[in-house]
Here is the input.
Amino acid sequence: MDVIVLLIMVLASGMIYIAVNLFFATFSFWMIDSLPVVFAVFSLSDFARYPMTIYSKVIMFVLTYIIPFGFTAFYPAMYFFEGRGFTMFALATPLVATLSLVIAYRFWLYGLRAFASTGS
Here is the structure.
């Protein structure tokens, strides 16, 4: 059973990265140079390399509820460490991934409506 959970968590983590990338890449419809924004957001993913419990509550909040990088490594890993108190967050990872993709995709569609081509 743990192998199946692991595979689901890995797929969900990838979906979260895709969603965050799509969401922030959509800003290029309105910004001339959106790469600094995308780079800054993905620099936050470095925080997901370490246990989130070492960070302040503010950083944990951002990495859990605003830009859900905590669901790409920390919370799924906590599923396999019993008694850590993050099991519900870990089990929510596929839901967070799906919700993130839906939000990012809808934002992308909104951006497409605002797109104005410079070509013919």
